[in-house]
Each structure stands twice: as structure tokens, then as C-alpha cells.
């Protein structure tokens, strides 16, 4: 099973001059190496804070563009990993071993990813073939 | 520049475990995904099961605490994401606007931190961890 593991934003991470603390980056680097050595790590990235953000809100056929920053700091994503784990419990155990990703109180959210098999019942054979082709092409692009 | 387009579907925070998108929605979204791919914009994408099937780990008092989903206090939750390679924030916004959403959802556009965005003292630390360099060789222009 794959999981999206989300580091939630904090006041500090959303401030405009937010840049990572080198000591924390080093601890996080060690943790990432350990994830990688155990075959857990598939992808990881950090996202820029507030000032560069935008939202597109959909209401029926209308699209409204809203520029950041946004007030609900604790709901925002600061960074993420994609992990391959056997179960939600295994993902939780790994997250507990993660260094606190912020120099203040913080949350990490673990969300199982939809796999193709989850959709099979709702897909036409054609949609399914297209989806498989798309995924294979994206996969080969990474190599 | 890489951007993450984060899909925030209205009401997904209270969705039951096992909630699935409809075949019609999946098909419309697949056509959109294909248009992103044909334009050479799409790097990866995924959809997420509802928060009721997930968990949170809270770092607030020494030992991490585990909370099982759903999360009553969450007003906005993630339903999925696209990772795209575009020339500007404006281009990412234009792509987001074309998404075939019929409801009352929001897509948030966030720029990804690249290696060269960090100050020297941080890149020095990162050099020791080669696994964590950008995974997409063509993602650096």
C-alpha cells in the first residue's frame, strides 16, 4: 500500500523568510536515508510558504483565483513523502520515529493512496487501459 | 519549476471509509490527466482515500501522539494532487482552471522547493544525502 505522509504547516513554516534549520535538515536526512534503506521511500518534497501560493475555487462552471496567504495555517501542507508500507500501522510506526519536522508543535497526517485496484469496479475497460498506460509512461519518465 | 496542485474537495473531511468517486467523474478526470500529459506538464498524480481511513501523528509533548481519522476539527482536507512541471505560477493556475470540477472544490497551487532554492548552509547538509535530490532529472529548468 502507498501512503501520502503530509507534514502540516505551522506559523513558522508559513512565514515568508522560512528556511529550514540545518540541524533539523541533517536529522531529517538521516531519517530519509533510513526510510530509503528499508524500501519505504518513494518520493519526498517540500513546498514553498505562503507568498507564492494561489488557489482556484470551483463553483459549478465558475473558477475564481485567490492569491495567498491563507489563514488556516494548520490545514496547509508544508511538505510530503510517498511511502510504500504494508499497513497504516506500519506507516504510523515510521512517522513516530521521524524527528519533529518543526521547531514547534506540529502534525503529520497519513493518508492511504487510491490504487488502480480500488477503482476497477467503477471503470470501463477503456478508461482502465488509458490509466494503466498513463501510469506506465509517468513511471518511465522518472528513470 | 515544479508545482503541486492540491485538490481540496468540499465535504471530503466527513466522507465514510471506502468512499469512491463515480465512473463519470473518473473518466472526466482521466481525460484532463491525459491533456496534462500530452502537454508535457504532468510528473505524477495520486488520489487519496478519505481521512476516515487515515491517521495523524501529533508532535506536541515529547512523545508523538496518534489520532485516528476522521478529524473533526479539519475544515479542509486533501483529496489528491498533481505534480506538474511548468514555466510559471500563472501557467499552473491556468492548468488548474481547466480541471473538470463540477462541484464546489478548491485547488491550491504550491511551488516545490528545489535544491537551489536553499541557502548554502542547507545545501551543504543536503549534499550528504544524495537520495533526497530531485527525483525528476528534467525538472530543473
Notes on the structure:
The complex is a heterodimer of chains A (143) and B (141). Chain A has 143 residues and is of the alpha+beta class. In chain A, 36% of the residues lie in helices and 28% in strands. Chain A is built from five helices and six strands, in the order E-H-H-E-E-E-E-H-E-H-H. In chain A, the strands form two sheets. A four-stranded antiparallel β-sheet of chain A has the order 2-5-1-6, with helices on one face. Chain A has a two-stranded antiparallel ribbon with strand order 3-4. In chain A, strand 3 and strand 4 (62-67) form a beta hairpin. Chain B is of the alpha+beta class. Chain B is built from three helices and six strands; from the N terminus they run βαββββαβα.
C-alpha-based Rg of chain A, rounded = 18 Å
Query: SSE order of chain A in H/E notation?
Result: EHHEEEEHEHH
- Which structural category fits the helices and strands of chain A? alpha+beta
What are the secondary-structure elements of chain B, in order, as H or E? EHEEEEHEH
Portion in beta strands of chain B: 15-25%
Measured distance between first and last alpha carbons of chain A: 22 Å
Distance between the termini of chain B: 6 Å
Which range best describes the helical content of chain B: under 10%, 10-25%, 25-40%, 40-55%, 55-70% or over 70%?
A: 10-25%
Morphology call of chain B: flat
Number of strands of chain B: 6
Number of helices of chain B: 3
> What kind of sheet is the major sheet of chain B?
4 strands, antiparallel
Mean pLDDT of chain A: 89
> How large a portion of the residues of chain A is in β-strands, by DSSP E?
25-35%
Q: What is the percent of helical residues of chain A?
A: 25-40%
Strand adjacency order, main sheet of chain A: 2-5-1-6
